[in-house]
Amino acid sequence: MKPTLFRKNLTVVVHILAWLLVALALFVINPLSWKIDLPAEFWIKQGLILTILIWSFYGNIFFIAPRFLFQEKYGQYLFIALGTGLLFVLLLQKYDSWVEFSRIMHEAFRPGEAYVPKPKSYTWDIVFYLQYALSIGISTSIAAVQKWQMEDLVRRQLEEQKKSSELSYLKAQINPHFFFNTLNNIYALINFDVEKAKAALLKLSRMMRYVLYETEKDKTLLSSEVNFINDYISLMQMRVSEKVKLDIHVQEKVEDIMIAPMLLLPFIENCFKHGVTAGQESHIKINLTMEGNCLQLQTENKINEKNQSSPEINRKGIGLANTLRRLSLLYKNKHTLLIDDTNPEKNYRVDLSINLG
Length: 357
Description:
Blueprint: H1 3-32, H2 40-69, H3 74-99, H4 101-109, H5 123-172, H6 176-190, H7 194-213, E1 220-221, H8 222-239, E2 244-250, E3 258-259, H9 265-274, E4 282-291, E5 294-302, H10 318-330, E6 335-340, E7 347-355
Parallel strand pairs: 2-4
Antiparallel strand pairs: 1-3, 4-5, 5-7, 6-7
Helix pairs in contact: 1-2, 2-3, 2-5, 3-5, 5-10, 6-7, 7-8
């Protein structure tokens, strides 16, 4: 049995045993100690109370606390928690009225004595509400601990992922070959277009600075990431021939919102690395836009036959694998990623949306 499955099964067993102890201690052993032949209606009410407490306990852990308390909706959380308790009190009062609980219990404790209706006592209602409050309090504490443990686990995973992928980012995303080839192109430019060579060298230096400093941070400005991508595309355009048709649209002005650095580059690099074949016509489409807090990236390139087994296309490459992992950790439930490499046109298409809000 796997350790994770074992821990899950152990947790279930612990919960079951805990509720059995609560049921025996509060709802079975104590009434039996009265040494009275209690009616079935009493035991039904005990079972109803236990069911309400269990439902409240797990409903608070899995729904109410995560949806309201942990979203900092404190007023709504208190209203729902306290209001639900009052509704349960009314439910139990309705049950008492329906089965004539007071009369039945009077006959059980004082058989043969005439029953005389008395003003309603709220002692049992108060005891139940305290039990309900205790159930909510304990479940809230457990939910808070679980939330802290989950956030700590994600944080540690991110730290481990960052450490294990620092080298792979440089190798798979901005590898030395790119820098060497770009420097060679700039060197060739110097002979006939010095100004263009200077501009290219400036872009390369900006990219190197970004890689060295921005990737050490957890988040960077989206505008910086977009500028980095623009510099990368500009330098790649120097290397491709006229047979490569480029259809590129990168939104110029974007909100200064934060994003994980070098999160988009693997998809763009994949277009140039595996969508271009020497001597053949190729096409590359890149569309990067921002609508509100939603960042959208669409890329498309031809799948060349000799690159069919390329690691990125098979989704097993270091760069893309790390990116998919980072997306799942950093933007869980905040992103959608569609990769299509089985269409009749034999194109490799990526459609990525990230909610950066």
